[in-house]
Design a protein that fits this description.
Elements: H1 24-33, E1 39-40, H2 51-63, E2 67-79, H3 81-89, H4 92-100, E3 105-106, H5 107-114, H6 116-128, E4 137-138, H7 143-161, H8 168-176, E5 181-193, H9 195-204, H10 216-221, H11 248-262, E6 266-267, E7 273-275, H12 276-279, E8 299-300, H13 313-323, H14 337-341, E9 343-345, H15 350-359, E10 365-374, E11 386-395, H16 401-415, E12 420-427, E13 430-440, E14 443-453, H17 455-458, E15 467-473, H18 474-482, H19 495-504
Helix pairs in contact: 1-2, 3-7, 4-5, 4-6, 5-6, 11-18
Bound molecules: phenylalanine.
Phenylalanine binds next to strand 13, strand 14 and strand 15.
Length: 505
């Protein structure tokens, strides 16, 4: 019975068999192909068989080496919604032509009749065809233009019905125009029956009629008695079906969660959209800080913003930013409540930490989250605009830089990273601040920031003890954990990688 286990071995899939069995659908496809030389898969049409069945039969026939298959890249064009509308209502330049056909029409006439947006397109297109306004008046068009534009309309019609060939000049025109046609690349199989296929076809002729599925009809009519049943082939090779798995990022995120839970931390969660007040002001980030810039932060229309959580803190923030506390001077500028009221996509999850501590002032507190943040960042091999942060804080009498270092070491040690380095850093809300750097296989990777919250952050909110906090990149960690050179690979949906990543752990 050793033969059967071949199905488990993907390498044996598709190897030549002495005399392969073929299904009735495959016979139909073979027989169709025996009457053609070479044909595009999409041009095969067989009564009673859908495109999916044909396509699957072709795959089987190819794996049984009964047909020869080559593949060709093919670009398909279709109309965008706007293109569909142009086809229904006419192209803007065509409509404009109707307006100016009797002469003496003005640019304004066109813009008013067609509306600004479409009018501008129409005028630009007419100008390209040599119809340009002089003194605001558009010249009456000459006859050939009408038929030329009718050609454009017909071309759109062709795109819609999928007729080929497409005239290259028209295609160029519409490819350059914005948002009228769209293209999709796909690979088409070109198939041809080969001698082995011919032999199998001949051998199977005459017994095309066989029963694959026993139906009530066949039983009632009794015709099952006289028709042969299709044979089961226990040795036929089937492709291995892989079950679904968990995405590497979810996997790592669960591991991180488990570690903090084991260490006695409580998981907190926040929201993607925050008021600048909690995301920035609460953390003593000055309102003119570069990180607040549109360059770095995604702002959101705030005209219908819901009320902020705990609005009583706003006056506290104002005081700290303008005047400071105790011996600390603050930033000394005029704090603006409008800037604080702006909505944004949270740029870090430290916003959850500070709000959590405000709501849980009873020391000690140990909290963490693994959640998504957003940055207006140009994406490259180590930067993403959407990423997850491993956030956390410990609030208590015994919180100190030493305990922070211990925690960071312990956390990464539990993931298997022992070479850790801390370098001095700067965040407006921590002092001292330090960045965490991990070395793996001789390569260094900066994983995130940490520090002890400044008194300007903790004291105004009624927190009496030190707070140590950190914000670490999950995707950066994934890079070193899964051995990736490019952070973008994580979200590339590369199916081979997704299937194999477990091996590398
Ligand atoms: N919020 C910082 C960041 O987004 C990280 C950090 C968290 C730094 C807590 C210090 C303390 O990069």
């Amino acid at each position: 019975m050793g033969e059967i286990s071949m199905a488990d071995n993907p390498d044996s899939y598709g190897k030549e068999q002495s005399s392969p069995d073929v299904s009735p659908n495959e016979v139909k496809v073979l027989s169709f192909l025996s009457r053609q030389k070479v044909i595009l898969e999409t041009e095969i049409s067989i009564d009673g068989l859908g495109q999916r069945e044909i396509s699957s039969a072709i795959s089987w026939l190819e794996s049984k080496k009964l047909i020869d298959v080559s593949r060709e890249d093919h670009t398909e064009y279709s109309l965008t919604d706007e293109g569909e509308r142009f086809l229904r209502e006419g192209l803007p330049e065509g409509k404009a032509l109707q307006i100016i056909r009797n002469g003496n029409a003005t640019v304004r006439d066109v813009l008013e009749t067609l509306g600004q947006a479409e009018g501008k397109i129409a005028l630009a297109q007419l100008a390209k065809l040599g119809i340009k306004p002089s003194g605001g008046i558009l010249p009456a068009p000459e006859m050939p233009i009408f038929s030329y534009l009718e050609g454009r309309r017909k071309f759109l019609e062709k795109i819609r019905t999928g007729k080929e060939p497409l005239e290259s000049e028209m295609l160029e025109h519409f490819r350059k125009r914005e948002n009228v046609i769209k293209e999709r690349k796909r690979t088409i199989r070109i198939v041809r029956i080969n001698p082995a296929g011919m032999r199998v076809l001949e051998a199977s002729s005459g017994n095309q009629e066989s029963i694959g599925t026993l139906t009530p009809d066949l039983i009632q009519s009794g015709s099952w008695k006289s028709t042969p049943f299709q044979k089961y082939d226990l040795n036929s090779r089937v492709e291995r079906i892989l079950g679904s798995g968990i995405h590497p990022i979810s996997y790592l995120s669960r591991m991180v969660r488990d570690i903090f839970l084991e260490l006695g931390f409580t998981e907190m969660s926040g929201h993607y959209i925050e008021h600048a007040a909690w995301n920035m002001d609460a953390l003593f980030i000055p309102q003119d800080h570069p990180a607040r810039d549109m360059q770095d932060t995604f702002y959101i229309d705030s005209s219908n913003a819901p009320e902020m959580e705990h609005p009583e803190v706003l006056e506290i923030f104002r005081k700290v930013h303008e005047k400071g506390i105790r011996g600390y001077t603050g930033w000394g500028y005029r704090w603006s409540s409008e800037k604080a009221a702006q909505l944004l996509l949270r740029t870090h999850t430290t916003v959850s930490t500070i709000r959590y501590l405000y709501e849980h002032k009873q020391a000690p507190q140990a909290v963490f989250s693994v959640e998504k943040v957003f940055r207006h960042e140009s994406v490259d091999w180590k930067h993403l605009a959407e990423l997850h942060q491993i956030e956390g804080a410990y609030y208590g009498k015994d919180a100190s830089l030493a305990s922070l270092k211990w925690l960071m070491r312990e956390f990464y040690r539990r993931l298997g990273f022992t070479q850790l380095r801390f370098v001095p850093s700067y965040y407006p809300y921590t002092e001292p601040s330090m960045d965490v750097i991990v070395t793996i296989n001789g390569k260094e990777m900066e994983l995130g920031g940490s520090g002890v919250f400044r008194p300007e952050v903790t004291e105004p909110l009624g927190l009496k003890h030190p707070v140590i906090a950190w914000g670490l990149g999950l995707e950066r960690l994934a890079m070193i954990y899964f051995g990736l050179d490019d952070i973008r690979d994580i979200y590339q949906s590369d199916i081979d990688w997704l299937r194999s990543y477990r091996m590398k752990i």
